Structures are given as C-alpha cells and as structure tokens.
C-alpha cells in the first residue's frame, strides 16, 4: 500500500501549539474533498488485480469473463475524471481515529470561525466533492415519518470520530493549554489523525443481514448451513464480484455491525499491512477495545460456497465473490450476534492519515489500461463464444416481445432504440395515480422500462454515469402495471421474486439484466440521447427517455415464467 502526500507539513495549520499535532479545520475539509474525488473515479491496484484474476481464471464462465472485462473497461473510462465509476456514488462515510495529541484549529487568525467542529469540516469537504465532480445526490431528508425530499447535496454524510490514546472523540478547538504536553500514542508513537473514507451504495448496503442467533450456531455444521443460506440469499443485485464479510459474536449488536462494516471495506487488511510495516503511526485494530479474531480457514470456505451457488459475476459462473473475511468477537453467554455484508465491485474505500509530516492519502491507479488490456487479451484468446448476442431494435413493445419470445433465458442481446428510465419514486407516483382512479401516463405503455437513477450530467455529455438499479424493489408493482399494458419489458440488475416471475407468465412480460457496476461505460458508449419526460422534481429519479445503441442485456425471466437464476 502506497500513500501520496496531499498537503505538506507546512500547510497543516497556521502554527503548531504545544507538543502535539495541530490541524486546521480547512485542511480536514480539503483532505476529505480530495479523498472522495479520488475514490469516486479510481481503484486501488489490489482491486483491479482481483478483476483481472476473474477474467483470467480458467474456471471462470464466459459471463464471468465478460463482466470482469467490462468492469475493467469501465475503470479506464472513469479514471479520466469525468464519469464516476458507479451511478450510485453512495452515502459518504468518514471514519476517523483521533489521537490525544491531535488538536483541530477551528478558528483562523483574526477570529474567523471556519467550522464549529471536526464533523462540520468533514461534511464541508464531502459537500464540495459531490457538487463539483458529477456525483449523484441520493440522500432523502424526512419532513415527517412518511414524507421526504432529496437534499440536492448528498448531505448529510455519516461521520464517526473515535478518540484514541485517551482522546475524546469530540475534541474541540485547539488551544495552547489543551495541547501542551499532550503527545499521543504509546511506545513512542507520534500523534496522528487516521481516516477511512467510504462511498457506500444503496444496493450493497441493502444486503446487510443481522441475526440474533444462539450458541447452537457455534459448531461447524450449523455455521456451514448458516453460510449457505445467507450467501445464496445475497443474489446478484448488489453487483458482484463481492467482498463477503461475516462477523460472529460481539458484546453488542453495534460492535458486531461496526466490525462488519470495517471488514467489508478492507480496513482490517490495510491495518494488518500497515502495522506490520511499522513506523511512527499505530493504526487502530480494535472495535470498542476488542481486537477481532480473524478466521482464515473459513474465509476459504465462504469463497467455495459462493462459487457453488453458480450465480457468478452477475450472469452465472463461479465468481460471485472475489474476497471473503470472517471474524469472531467475544460474546455474552446469552447472545450470539451474526452478520453478513458485502462490498460491491465498485469498491470505493480509501485510508489516509495526517501526521507531523503532512496529510497522506492512499494512492489509487490513475491509468488502469494495462489491467484492462491484459484481461481483454486473455478473454479474446480463450472465450468459447457460445451464442453471440442477438441485435434487437426496439421499434415497438409488441415487436420486441415477439423477438425475445424466440430465445431461452440466459440469451444475450444488444438493444438499440428508445427506453424509458424510471425507478422507485416514479413507480410510487404511478401507483398513487391508479389509486386515485386515474390512468397511467401514456408513455409507460410504449417503451421498455429501465430502472436507473443516473449521476449528474457532465458539461457537454449526453448523460452522467448510468447503471441499473436493483430490480426487485419494483416487484410490488407487477400486477398494477402489467395488467394495464406497462412494464412488459423491464431492464435492471439482480434476481427477482416469485411475484414478478408469475406476473411475467400471466401477462407475457420479460425481465432482462444488464451489467451492474459499469455505469461510466454505459453512459459513454451506449446512450446517445436523453430527455426528461415527467416528474423533474425527483432529480435523478425523474422519468426520462433515453436512446441506446447496442446496450448489452441478458434474458433473465421470459414470458413463460422461466427464470435464469432459478435454473442455476
């Protein structure tokens, strides 16, 4: 793991006080802004290598290889810094570990207040990053239990600050008396401020599963049954290949879930590496004072179970997971908390730190082309090419349905023509129309519907990063829409419920999947035009009409009720 100096020592604060480390609040804001900009467009080398491994694994299915190559091509496009890696640029999360010898200067010379707290500084950096980098505003603010409105800023961010070595997490503004003699650390360690920056998409967050189990789980047979049930239930909606994390135990549910969160981000791996290397900074390797026990033998078993599902990297194969992490925590004798969570293929996590030498941020790969070229070359030489994609012109719903009906589930197509874009909020408004006795808007009857919420559109571009939304969130609307001639062709990602499969058979409808996690690629290469049709107040969830060229899709559920995932 390599770090890049973002801010020199001379830029940390107007002046240092006492024997500790003083950091200006504006530095925290600027550092945070840079972190979220970097993680939204680039990946660490280790992540790119894992995708190459999927593409070049002789055991990979053709679809495994296809997805891996497309994700690497997507990384190449995103690295240009205009279209982010994923359309769901996530909830911004900042985890910070602040040593006792670190003070934050919140007031500038002359008495001007920059920020009221460290949290405000982090939030300001997040807000600027999302506003200025074509990122998506996904956060809804409640006005009542049931009513909400998009914040139009992607704020608030989640900010968690942990005090270490005797520090208070809410340590206030630096003063001479506060810092004097407060040199943090033990064993001669220098005081530092350490960070984990995350952009967590909704699809992968939704896959978090928490169970209050019992001691009966704590034997190999029961635990294996637990893993098989939970891993199969993950499905493909959160854009594999995944990092799958499992945590058993914990002195509280909160400790269990915090450990799980850090495991999905790769934090424990980073800490192991950095503390092994040594140096003047000690990275925090505990949660609430407890050091998790890593169970590497079971990590291998998790990967095996994931491969055995046959779900693969979205459309069948052996690479549902690229990594697995299993941790055990102490527990109360009457409790056995168990959780499982994932990080999707848009693995957007960075560590960083501030020390007396400056502010340092984990380096990512600025030019992923060698990784893409290696994977593409291998795939071109080894792929079996069973069943080339079939081109379908979306001239009319009836013509497209007739064409799709000729092929089995799993068939690949290239769609060209006009497609309606709508997801959760639009579907809720359509349902409200029906409940009030009004008809569906006419446009719902004439086009396939693709569930998506694109990122902000860059200047001069047709559309922002554009990828599919989790399909099964729209399943409750099946009969309402299909019975009225809408949603007879839908496009999204992941597996759907029996409710949707039954409706497809009843009404002669089709569901197709497209690649999740390739949002920059889809926006740049497959969408040629777009316009807003309805509900502009919904922001990224407004109803839009797009024109696509050779959009890759796979037939998941057909008009006979056959389902690709159910057949695996």
Features of the shown structure:
single chain, alpha/beta, fumarase, 3 domains, 6-stranded mixed β-sheet, 31% helix, 24% strand
Overview in brief:
With 568 residues, the protein is an alpha/beta fold.
Explain this structure.
By secondary structure, the chain is an alpha/beta fold. The protein has three domains: 1-199 and 346-385, no CATH class; 202-345, no CATH class; 390-567, fumarase, CATH 3.20.130. The chain is 31% helix and 24% strand. It contains 16 helices and 22 strands. It has a six-stranded mixed β-sheet. It has a five-stranded mixed β-sheet with strand order 9-13-10-12-11, with helices on both faces. The chain has a five-stranded mixed barrel with strand order 17-18-19-20-22. Helix 1 packs parallel to helix 4 (118-132), helix 3 runs antiparallel to helix 11 (369-382) and helix 3 (62-78) packs across helix 16 (519-525). The radius of gyration is 25 Å and the shape is globular. The two termini are 38 Å apart. The model is unreliable at 175-186 (pLDDT under 50).
Largest sheet: 6 strands, mixed
Q: Strands across the major sheet, in which order?
A: 1-15-14-8-3-7
| Overall tally of structural domains | 3
Low-confidence stretches: 175-186
Q: Give me the count of strands.
A: 22
Q: Count the helices. How many?
A: 16
Strand content bin: 15-25%
What percent of the residues sit in helical stretches (DSSP H or I)? 25-40%
Shape: globular
Q: Radius of gyration, Cα only, in angstroms?
A: 25 Å
Structural class: alpha/beta
Q: Could you tell me how far the N terminus lies from the C terminus, measured between alpha carbons in angstroms?
A: 38 Å
Mean of residue pLDDT? 93
């Amino acid at each position: 793991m390599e770090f890049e100096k973002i801010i020199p020592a001379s830029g940390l604060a107007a002046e240092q006080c006492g024997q500790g480390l003083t950091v200006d609040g504006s530095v925290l804001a600027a550092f945070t802004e840079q972190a979220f900009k970097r993680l939204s467009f680039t990946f660490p080398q280790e992540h790119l290598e894992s995708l190459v491994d999927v593409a070049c694994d002789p055991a990979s299915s053709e679809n495994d290889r296809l997805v891996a190559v497309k994700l690497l091509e997507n990384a190449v496009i995103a690295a240009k810094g205009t279209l982010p890696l994923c359309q769901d640029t996530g909830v911004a999360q900042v985890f910070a570990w602040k040593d006792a010898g670190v003070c934050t200067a919140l007031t500038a010379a002359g008495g001007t207040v920059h920020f009221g707290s460290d949290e405000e500084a982090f939030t300001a950096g997040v807000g600027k990053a999302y506003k200025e980098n074509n990122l998506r505003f996904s956060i809804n603010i409640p006005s009542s239990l049931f009513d909400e409105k998009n914040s139009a800023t992607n704020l608030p961010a989640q900010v968690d600050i942990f005090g270490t070595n005797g520090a208070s997490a809410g340590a206030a503004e630096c003063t001479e008396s506060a810092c004097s003699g407060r040199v943090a650390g033990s064993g001669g360690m220098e005081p530092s401020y350490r960070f984990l920056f995350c952009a967590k998409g909704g699809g992968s967050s939704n896959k978090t599963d928490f169970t209050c189990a019992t001691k009966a789980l704590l034997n190999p047979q029961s635990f294996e049954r637990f893993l098989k049930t939970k891993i199969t239930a993950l499905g493909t909606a959160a854009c594999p290949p995944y990092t799958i994390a499992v945590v058993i135990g914990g002195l509280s549910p909160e400790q269990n879930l915090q450990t799980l969160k850090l495991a999905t981000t790769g934090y424990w791996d980073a800490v192991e590496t950095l503390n092994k290397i040594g140096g003047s900074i000690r990275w925090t390797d505990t949660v609430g004072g407890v050091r998790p026990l890593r169970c590497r033998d079971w990590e291998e078993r998790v990967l095996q179970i994931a491969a055995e599902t046959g779900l693969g990297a979205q459309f069948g194969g052996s690479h549902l997971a690229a990594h697995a992490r299993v941790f055990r925590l102490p527990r109360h004798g009457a409790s056995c908390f168990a959780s499982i969570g994932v990080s999707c293929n848009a693995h957007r996590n960075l560590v960083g730190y501030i020390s007396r030498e400056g502010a340092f941020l984990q380096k990512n790969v600025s030019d992923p082309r060698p990784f893409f070229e290696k994977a593409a070359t291998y795939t071109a030489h080894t792929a079996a090419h069973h069943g080339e994609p079939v081109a379908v012109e979306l001239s009319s719903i009836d013509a497209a349905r007739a064409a799709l009906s000729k092929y089995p589930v799993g068939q690949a197509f290239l769609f060209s023509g006009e497609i309606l874009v709508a997801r959760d909020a639009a579907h809720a408004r359509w349902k409200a129309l029906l409940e009030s006795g009004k008809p569906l808007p006419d446009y719902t009857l004439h086009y396939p519907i693709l569930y998506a919420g694109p990122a902000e559109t860059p200047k001069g571009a047709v559309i922002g990063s554009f990828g599919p939304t989790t399909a099964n969130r729209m399943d409750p609307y099946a009969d309402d829409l299909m019975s009225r001639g809408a949603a007879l062709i839908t496009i999204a990602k992941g597996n759907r419920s029996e409710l949707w499969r039954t409706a497809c058979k009843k009404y002669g409808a089709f569901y197709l999947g497209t690649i999740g996690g390739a949002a920059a690629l889809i926006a740049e290469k497959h969408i040629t035009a777009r316009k807003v049709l309805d509900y502009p107040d919904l922001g990224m969830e407004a109803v839009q009409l797009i024109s696509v060229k050779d959009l890759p899709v796979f037939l998941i559920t057909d008009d006979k009720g056959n389902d690709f995932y159910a057949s695996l």
